Amino acid sequence: MHSKTLLTALSGLALVSAQVPLINGTISGPIVPGTTGRLGDAEITENNPVGVVYQAILPNRNTSDIRGYIAGTANSNGTGVQFNINFFGFPSAALGPFMYHIHDQPIPSNGNCTAALAHQDPYIRGEIPPCDPTQPQTCQVGDLSGKHGNITSNPFQTTYLDLYTSTESGLGSFFGNRSIVIHTSNATRLNCANFTLVAGNATGAAPQPTITGAFTGGASAQFVSFGAVAAGLLAFVLL
Fold first, then answer.
1. Residues β-bridged to residue 70
2. Are 147 and 139 in contact (CB under 8 A)?
């Protein structure tokens, strides 16, 4: 197994690997079973701080009607992260299926989704070939739609446990200092938002992106009541 220290130090190399050419203008292509990262398969995250909740709320944009939120909290036993997602306002289904991923960098104050760079990928897998959802440990950590399914309905609401993301800051698998980006099927970025801590206390090292870069704030967003989100998440994981 690779140490957490090694993963954190080397995960920045993922951005170099992930900036790969698209296949016929899309990131679609044949799944190659067993494809994994240069640092091996993703490890299941354990001892995640329970009660810590990170949420990203999609902002109002003149260029997109997509709105909603994604929130994540540690599973009740500290293993993996329980995500609760509610997205709506998607454009024509002809542009789908829509994808969503955790990206390595936060969104700057100007709201430029491109600044998020590539997917969160501490094991340096890259985007091609596509993720095999039957072997989620071989996928990029941030490839949520690859592991758990694309957006195929409007609105899109789902809840699931992801074993490879973490609420413990300082790790390459930590998502709380990163961003969520929604794409069309040809990888065009439609909307994006930063994760922020909305409940609990962050533990561990100060959150730092895997690639250094200035962050001056987040895009403005219409607030979605966190109380209902947190209550739903915690009720689910305590079942």
1. 56, 85
2. yes
- For the chain, helix, strand, coil in percent to 5 are 20, 25, 55
Best CA proximity match to 147, nearest among 12, 229, 31: 31
Q: Which residue has the tokens 């690859």?
A: 146
Element (H, E) at 236: helix 226-237
Dihedral sign from CA coordinates of 33, 38, 41, 45: negative
Nearest Cα neighbor of 219 from 186, 191, 200 is: 191
Span 74-117, pLDDT tens digits = 999 999 999 999 999 999 999 999 999 999 999 999 999 999 99
Question: Is there a contact between 4 and 11 (Cβ–Cβ < 8 Å)?
Answer: no
Note whether 179 and 213 are within 8 A (CB). no
pLDDT of residue 225: 42
pLDDT digits (tens, 9 = 90+) for 38-86: 899 999 999 999 999 999 999 999 999 999 999 999 999 999 999 999 9
